[in-house]
Write a structure and sequence with these properties.
The protein has 140 residues and is α/β, with parallel strands linked by helices. 40% of the residues lie in helices and 18% in strands. It has a 4-stranded parallel sheet with strand order 2-1-3-4, sandwiched between helices. The protein is globular and about 60 Å long.
Length: 140
C-alpha cells in the first residue's frame, strides 16, 4: 500500500486531512496526519508519529508532505520513517498546501514513487489570482 502522510506545526496537517476527506472520501486509512501542537514536546510528537505509522509494513511506500522543509515536524517524521526502514520507499515534499495534498491523494496509487514528487508539485498551484474589472467597482 502507498500512504499519504501529512505533518505540520499546529493543526495544518489535520485541517488538510479534514479537507481531503470532503474531496476524496472520509475514513481512508491510506491518508494520515499529525501536528506538532504548541507546547507539545518533541518526544510526545515522535511517539504520536510512531503510533500513527505502526501498521505501515516494510513493503509499503510513503508520500510524506510537511509544512516546512527543515521544520521539526518533517525532520521528526523522517527520523521515524528512517527507523522503520522505510526511507528508501518514501518521497518527501516540504511546503504542502491543499492542491498538492489533493494531487497526491488522487494520484498516489497510479504514480510510481520515482515520479511522485513531480506529480505532487505540478498540482501545487501557488500563483497570483488577478480579477479583471471593467473600470467600475463591482461586487465580486
Amino acid at each position: 500500500m502507498k500512504y499519504l502522510v501529512m505533518v505540520s506545526h499546529g493543526k495544518l496537517a489535520d485541517g488538510l486531512h479534514n479537507a481531503l476527506g470532503m474531496l476524496v472520501g472520509k475514513d481512508r486509512t491510506d491518508i494520515r496526519s499529525a501536528g506538532l501542537e504548541d507546547g507539545m514536546g518533541a518526544d510526545v510528537y515522535e511517539e504520536n508519529l510512531r503510533k500513527l505509522l505502526a501498521d505501515v509494513r516494510p513493503d509499503d511506500q510513503v508520500v510524506l508532505l510537511g509544512d516546512l522543509i527543515g521544520g521539526s515536524p518533517l525532520t521528526t517524521a523522517i527520523g521515524v520513517i528512517s527507523d522503520m526502514g522505510l526511507l528508501p520507499a518514501t518521497v518527501i515534499i516540504g511546503g504542502m498546501n491543499l492542491p498538492a495534498a489533493l494531487n497526491a491523494a488522487l494520484n498516489k496509487d497510479d504514480t510510481s514513487l520515482a515520479d511522485m514528487a513531480a506529480t505532487v508539485l505540478a498540482g501545487a498551484e501557488v500563483r497570483e489570482f488577478v480579477v479583471e474589472q471593467d473600470g467600475e467597482d463591482e461586487d465580486i
